[in-house]
Each structure stands twice: as C-alpha cells, then as structure tokens.
UniProtKB/TrEMBL annotation:
Its EC number(s): 4.1.1.44
Gene Ontology molecular function terms on file: 4-carboxymuconolactone decarboxylase activity; peroxiredoxin activity
PANTHER family according to UniProt: 4-CARBOXYMUCONOLACTONE DECARBOXYLASE FAMILY PROTEIN, CARBOXYMUCONOLACTONE DECARBOXYLASE-LIKE DOMAIN-CONTAINING PROTEIN
Pfam families recorded: CMD
Keyword Lyase among UniProt keywords: yes
Classification via InterPro entries: 4CMD/NDH-1_regulator, AhpD-like, CMD-like, Decarb_PcaC
Keyword Transmembrane: no
Residues of the Carboxymuconolactone decarboxylase-like domain: 40-122
Domain of life, per lineage: Bacteria
Keyword annotations of the record: Lyase
Stretches of the chain forming a coiled coil according to its record: none
Organism in which the protein naturally occurs: Roseibium aggregatum
Protein name per the record: 4-carboxymuconolactone decarboxylase
Length: 133
C-alpha cells in the first residue's frame, strides 16, 4: 500500500470511527495515545475503520450487529458495551440487539449470551437516561 493510500485509509477510517463511536469516544481514545500504542491505533484506524467498516457491501447497522454478536460470543464486555452505545449512530435497535444475542445463545453459547444480555440491558438503560444539564 502506498503512502497516499495509507493516508487515505487513515482519513477514511478516522471519519468512519467518529461516525460510529462518536466524537467524544474518539477524542478520549486519541488523548490517551502514547508512543507504546500509536502504531496499534493507526493499524485499527486503517484496518478496522478504514477498510472493514468503510466498505459499502454491508450497512453500518449490519456491521454493528455482527460486531455485537462477535464481541458477545468472545466475552469482550467493555467493547460490547461500547458497540451497544454506538447503535445510536448505526441505526441498530434494541430489538436488533436482542435478536443478535439470541443468535449468540445458539451459536456461541448460553452463558456468553446471558452475560451479553445483562450488559445490553444495563447499557440500553443508561442510554435512555436524559443527559445531565
């Protein structure tokens, strides 16, 4: 990949990441970067966000549900809550999330889905609370 393509993937990825996760999350993540994780963050921005999430074959809603199911099945609790919050930007509904987690129960295991459902309920309830003034 040329430097021009890399820069483009970085720019596209950064914009896509912001559109899915929101400015506040991305700003916090960028502020927390150190020399230790800068290359990793660059790789994630270019690969995950600039290539996978930016491809138009699937909608952001569809990618969101796939991501939620995978994170739930693998037991990645913090990332799961993050991506449930991101559904406010991707168009996935609470019903969509529930159905994705039903698939996790069958294909990834009931214990994983049980934990994910608890996290989803807590996260969705937090999302429904009005923002403080």
């Amino acid at each position: 990949m040329s430097e021009r393509e890399k820069g483009s993937r970085q720019e596209i990825g950064a914009a896509t990441r912001r559109s899915v996760l929101g400015d506040a999350h991305v700003d916090r993540a960028n502020a927390a970067r150190t020399g230790f994780d800068t290359r990793f963050q660059t790789m994630i921005t270019e690969g995950a966000w600039g290539t996978v999430w930016s491809d138009e074959t699937l909608t952001k809603r569809e990618r969101s549900l796939i991501t939620i199911a995978l994170l739930a099945a693998l037991g990645h609790k913090d990332e799961l809550a993050l991506h449930i919050r991101a559904t406010a930007n991707t168009g996935a509904t609470a019903e969509d999330i529930r159905e994705a987690l039903m698939h996790v129960a069958i294909y990834g295991g009931v214990p994983a889905a049980n934990t994910a459902i608890r996290i989803a309920k807590e996260t969705l309830a937090q999302m429904e609370k009005p923002a403080p003034d």
